[in-house]
Amino acid sequence: MNDTIDVTVNGERRAVARGATLLELLRTLELDPRVVVVEHNRAIVRRPKLGDVTVAPGDAIELVHFVGGG
Amino acid sequence: MTAAVETIRDAPFTIGGRTFHSRLMVGTGKYRDNETMVRAIEASGAEIVTVAVRRVDLDRTREAGILYHLDPKKYFLLANTAGCHTAEDAVRYARLAREGGGFNEFIKLEVIGDQETLLPDVQGLLAAARTLAKDGFQVLAYTNEDLVTALRLEDAGCAAVMPLASPIGSGLGLLNPYGVRTIKHRLKVPVVVDAGVGTASDACVTMEQGVDGILMNTALAAARDPVAMAHAMRLAVEAGRVAYLAGRMPKREVAVPSSPLEGMLD
Q: Which CATH architecture best describes the domain B17-246?
């Protein structure tokens, strides 16, 4: 059994560890969970819950933050 | 306000239950570097500062998020839905923004209907405004100068209505003073002119229409000296506001001498 699964992060396919939580995904990507908002299959996952949600093959994950804008 | 205008008593500038001192709101886009942006915002005296919601760059080739440069304790961050073309997208971005730091429930709502002019899609705008207002958002809606749309946005529960001076990023100034003035006369919620102001005189003329405030971005970011222009805009917004409160003299088609006609030499 393969120990990674494929998910889509910000529109790009990525291999992540099987059984990884969203919090672990952020850590792997070296992102600070305090300044990133996570959308998991179109549902927002709040910060305290990031460690509770496990990613599954084919999941669509969006990681957004604030940038300059008018 | 400066000491010279303390004789004018202005009403507080309140949006969605929050009171602000500055009637100038500024964006954070298109600056050549973050240091210039921070200094320009400081010079503008603005308290409300807009930001956009975008994907994190996983390859880190672009700048890190704006929160590394702007202190959310110092500025009231107003997230926007810029770039959204449907009500559904705008609602999605607004909800992401609300989670983006837990700052506030304010959203600058944009639903763009035409890519060339960036004019709003008023049907999408109204639909998104209704949904977000019901969802507890304080909606500041970017719209055109159409009075009926502005009235419908107020009915939809918007905290403020924001007609444009001219298209976003155009710097053409206030093209329809009558339209903006009419919206201000008829609405109870604050009216903030958003987009199109190019230089200080534009800001002054806009404030002289009696609107509650101005939101601008490119006029500062694209000026040769953004920090100096931010200072000019701060003065212009104050000057225009005070001139509006002071009440201008009536216009006449004939000259009226300022000096007495009596006492002239033979």
A: Alpha-Beta Barrel (3.20)
B108 is known as an active-site residue: yes
Task: Considering the candidates B108, B134, B184, B188, report the single residue annotated as catalytic.
Answer: B108
> What's the rounded Cα separation, in Å, for the pair B185 and B110?
23
B112: β partners? B120
Cβ distance B54 to A9 less than 8 Å, yes or no, reads: no
| pLDDT bracket for residue B5 (50, 70, 90) | low
Tokens of B161: 């209505």
- ipTM for the complex shown: 0.93
> What pTM did the predictor assign?
0.91
In terms of residues, how long is chain B?
266
Report all structural domains of chain A as residue ranges with CATH numbers, in order of start.
Answer: 4-64 (3.10.20.30)
Under 8 Å between Cβ of B105 and B96: no
Half-sphere exposure of B11 (CA within 13 A, CB side): 10
